[in-house]
Write a structure and sequence with these properties.
heterodimer; A: alpha/beta; Rossmann fold; B: 354 residues; 13 helices; 0% strand
């Protein structure tokens, strides 16, 4: 029964920021009547322009803010219950880290909060630093990290307690295209292990690649909710991708005009590779020693982050890990 | 047990983050230097009594300046560490990454205060030990008087070794220089203090069987210790307690105010606390009515009476500081800190963290 309950549920969630002393004065209406549900095992996207209430919604869900009205349930309970927080990981919009601690000390601190014993702490820290590619700089103060490195470390701290629910606020912020591709690959891999992920991002292409369902906010209001595919598909059109010579193209166009009328608009153009894929391919080709430029987490052993905590199960194949929906042009469905 | 483990984790994190900050090292080094150099002012001491009294007056001046330096350094560190530990974390949102985890806000506040307190105690205790060592080394008022060069040399060596160790760790392991210097210097000062706590002024080992200190080995007539002046040690202990009380006020203010606001509120408490009796008596003597008298009474209860912790006058007049007084003041400080932390927990409980 617990498995069918939504992981996150909000009911007419509203947040107004008031003057600290004159509390009847409303300074900003950040969120208005937001109702949504995030199901177990899905990747849910929060989209919206700047100031639309995305971060406010996340902070209300996490219990950092108190709602003006409405309700929030996190894993079926109040988000301020400590037992619930034990099962949640959070990556904030900015990588708020302690600049005088090094990477190992940072993860050690967060692990201690969950009372993880020393041996397990060391194991998890070593694994997570390797997962995010910071093993070589584990003793360097965080204040000397680049923004991308800080982001990776912040991502690692959100996983230290093997959470059921992971909330990511702009996970690829400050990362180069390779880092972004790795983040998306890791998100997909975590989903395949049964994690539920709530993420918000301004990078719509990244959201499209990894999210199962999305909600679009504006001025604190929910405009639309649904799967990426159902919201973006254009039902009246079909797209066919095949290798064709000019004669075949002419015949196909003639056939369409014959069956659907000569006024039917037809667009013929070579399909383009996504810029991200093109970039990664070029960078990979530039590495003459064939070393791996970016890491595909589809085949990586996730150690303690596995669904049931097993460490020696064979990693899923690339086909078994959840493929990002709708990122390639579809074949003709007929 | 989980709460205790979390309090320790937050305490440890706060301490590490603070001790590695350049400001901490700067305050530590400057206060140590100021205390160690106070004997140089002994030549300006004067008295209407005979020459031997000048030595006592000079020593008391060194002790007085040492305690004042400890108090000032402790207050600066207390406000700085408290605002950094709470207010700045709430502003910079590092607090958010802790509070979304299974950490209650009360545990967060308590862990932060204890981390600040340990950091303050480390710095002010170092200053206290340097004060005791400096007093013992002597404050020469005339050219024929000598310093205890063993102590002076040990302290200079401690400083040099700390610098060298920090440089080596920074070069070989990439560790932050200032953090290594702070920790090494404090540890070495403690080591020097321990060594000279078992050696008297005539460099005899006091733990040997049948040891009897000679009259010249005693530090003061009222002091039965052949090593350190225990009255100064008690005065230093009280000064540290005052700093911890002020730090609790700063932590409490930090739960709701930013750095500037916290500094202002804490400064007001310190100002009125150091003039607590005078302010109350002045308000009452104005005879402006029962309301003002009541206000004076309320302020007197709310603001910590920091005059009770300042023993400079007692030292100057060579009045002993009874152990019972030390115990009573410690209890007062502990109760005040507990009250402040409870208020801090309540203030943070209902605050939005964003």
């Amino acid at each position: 029964m617990a498995e069918t309950l939504p992981v996150i549920k909000t009911d007419k969630l509203t947040k107004h920021y008031r003057h600290p002393f004159f509390t009847s004065v409303v300074r900003a209406r950040a969120l208005s009547d937001l109702s949504l549900e995030v199901n177990r095992g899905e990747v849910f996207g929060l989209l919206g322009p700047n100031g639309s209430g995305k971060s406010t919604a996340i902070k209300l869900i996490l219990g950092l803010l108190r709602p003006t009205s409405g309700r929030v349930e996190l894993l079926g309970k109040d988000p301020n219950e400590l037992s619930v927080k034990n099962r949640v990981g959070y990556l904030p919009e900015e990588s708020y880290l302690y600049r005088f601690l090094n990477a190992t000390e940072t993860l050690d601190f967060y692990a201690r909060l969950f009372r993880i014993d020393r041996k397990e702490r060391r194991r998890r820290i070593g694994f997570l630093l390797d997962l995010v590619g910071l093993t070589d700089v584990d003793k360097r103060p965080v204040g000397e990290f680049s923004k991308g490195m800080q982001r990776r470390l912040a991502f690692a701290q959100s996983l230290i307690n093997n959470p059921e629910l992971i909330i990511l606020d702009e996970p690829a912020s400050g990362m180069d295209p390779i880092g972004t591709a790795e983040v998306k690959s890791l998100i997909g891999r975590l989903r395949s292990e049964g994690k539920t992920i709530l993420m918000c991002s301004h990078l719509l292409a990244d959201v499209e690649d990894v999210c199962d369902r999305i909600v679009i906010l504006d001025s604190g209001r929910n405009l639309v909710t649904g799967t990426v595919q159902s919201l973006t598909e254009r039902e009246s059109l079909r797209q066919v991708t095949a290798a064709m010579d000019d004669d075949t193209v002419t015949q196909v166009k003639a056939l369409i005009h014959e069956r659907q009328g000569s006024e039917t608009p037809i667009q013929v153009a070579p399909p383009t590779e996504r810029l991200e894929q093109f970039f990664l391919r070029i960078i990979q080709n530039a590495h003459h020693d064939d070393s791996e430029v970016w890491r595909d987490f589809a085949s990586v052993d996730l150690d303690f982050l596995k669904r049931d905590g097993r460490r020696d199960a064979p990693p899923p194949t690339a086909a078994e890990s959840a493929a990002p929906p709708g990122h390639d042009a579809e074949e003709g469905s007929e | 047990m989980l709460a205790l483990a979390q309090i320790y984790a937050i305490l440890r994190n706060t301490l590490l983050e603070t001790v590695r900050q350049p400001v901490y090292g700067l305050v530590l080094a400057l206060s140590a230097a100021m205390i160690a150099l106070t004997p140089a002012t002994a030549a300006h001491v004067y008295s209407f009594r005979v020459t031997t009294d000048l030595e006592r007056v000079a020593e008391r001046m060194v002790a007085d300046l040492g305690l004042a330096t400890i108090l000032l350094a402790g207050l600066i560190l207390g406000v700085f560490m408290s605002t950094g530990a709470v207010s700045r974390e709430l502003d910079d949102r590092t607090a958010g990454t802790i509070l979304v985890k299974n950490v209650s806000r009360s545990v967060f506040v308590l862990g932060k205060y204890l981390g600040v307190a340990v950091g303050i105690v480390c710095a002010t205790l170092t200053g206290s030990m340097i004060t005791l060592l400096t007093v013992r080394a002597g404050a020469p008022v005339a050219a024929w008087e000598r310093l205890d060069w063993g102590i002076v040399g040990a302290m200079i060596l401690a400083a040099l070794v700390a610098v060298g160790t920090a440089t080596w760790r920074n070069y070989s392991r990439g560790r932050a220089w200032i953090g290594s210097f702070n920790l090494t210097f404090m540890a070495l000062v403690f080591a020097v203090f321990l060594v000279f706590s078992v050696i008297d002024k005539e460099y005899q080992f006091i733990l040997q069987p049948g040891y009897q200190p000679s009259a010249s080995a005693l530090i003061a007539e009222t002091n039965w210790s052949p090593t350190y002046d225990r009255q100064i040690a008690r005065a230093a202990c009280l000064t540290i307690q005052a700093v911890l009380v002020v730090a609790s006020i700063a932590v409490t203010a930090s739960t709701r105010l930013n750095t500037i606001g916290t500094s202002c509120v804490t400064g007001c408490f310190v100002l009125f606390g150091l003039t607590s009796d005078f302010t109350r008596d002045t308000l009452i003597n104005l005879r402006w009515g029962a309301a003002v008298d009541a206000l004076a009474g309320v302020l007197y209860m709310i603001v910590p009476n920091l005059e009770k912790f300042w023993m400079s006058d007692a030292l100057t007049r060579e009045q002993p500081i009874p152990f019972e007084y030390l115990a009573a003041t410690t209890g007062y400080a502990a109760l005040y800190v507990i009250a402040m932390i409870l208020i801090a927990c309540y203030l943070l409980q209902n605050r939005d963290v964003s």
